[in-house]
Amino acid sequence: MKKIVSLILALTLLAAALFAFTSCGTQKSHKIAIPNDTTNEARALKLLEAQGIITLRSGLDTTATIRDIESNPYKIEFVEAAAETLPRILKDVGYAIINSNYAIDAGITPFVTEGTDVSYPNIIAVKDGNQTTDKTKALVAAVNSQAVKDYINNTYKGAIVCDLTSVGDGFDSTVDYDALAGTTIKIAASPTPHSDILEVAKTLLATKNITLQINEFNDYVVPNQVVESGEYDANYFQHIPYLNDFNEKNNTHIVSVLEVHHEPMGIYSDTYTSLDELKK
Q1: What is this structure's pTM?
Q2: What percentage of residues in the chain have a pLDDT greater than 70?
Q3: What distance in Å separates the CA atoms of residue 214 and residue 11, rounded to the nearest whole number?
Q4: Domains along the sequence of the chain with CATH
Q5: pLDDT above 80 (res 13)
Q6: Rama region for 17: left / alpha / beta (φ>0; ψ in -120 to 50; rest)
Q7: Are 201 and 143 in contact (CB under 8 A)?
Q8: Among 120, 123, 127, 119, which Cα is nearest to 144's?
Q9: If we measure between CA atoms, which residue out of 2, 77, 71, 65 comes closest to residue 35?
Q10: pLDDT digits (tens, 9 = 90+) for 227-239
């Protein structure tokens, strides 16, 4: 009999606890997935701060992490994951903050973006010392062309924003194209939009009998490693703050030679159409 009474008492206490947890005045938790690499995590957190969802410690630039959150009034649980995996885990969280290149590839649309912040331009990068080789100059000229600018503007319509200025016809008058004929320029790139944009440059270079070999990578580490080792001539996948952080942490010597475009980061959800649910 005592065991039965004890069981009833335990069940009663459990029911009371559940009622108290779900009763008025209790804030429920929401999961938000964000990129786990340093600079993109900071971008994601700043986007949430701009929306009034959290506040960060002052004085932080591109290095803010969840440990720098000063106020989290809506009791958000943050899920840190590799940027390229965020579209796949979107169904498992309330919200995710995703780079537009991965969002475009996944066919999803944001309901909030960080706008046209040009402090994160995606770049063509080479190993330090190779900035003025004919291969680099030919590649830069082909990308910094009216053809590429038109492609970006007409294809992405603001989802990807072109940063090219003083564009030309795709060729550099100081390059000895005859000497480069028959050679291959190897470039490591993210799939979308980077490799797609490079296809336009590839067509231009082909008119000079130069092959642009575009190899796709789905991570943010190997493309820099293969440029540092000399296996590849260049890469196109990252923004400048990420490159600076990567060089510092890995003792690499990679430099930007052209700012091509930037990708507004956005807030996405499979369930909600605004951030209002966070505030309930």
Answers
A1: 0.76
A2: 88
A3: 63
A4: 2-115+266-279 (3.40.190.10), 121-262 (3.10.105.10)
A5: no
A6: alpha
A7: yes
A8: 123
A9: 65
A10: 999 999 999 999 9
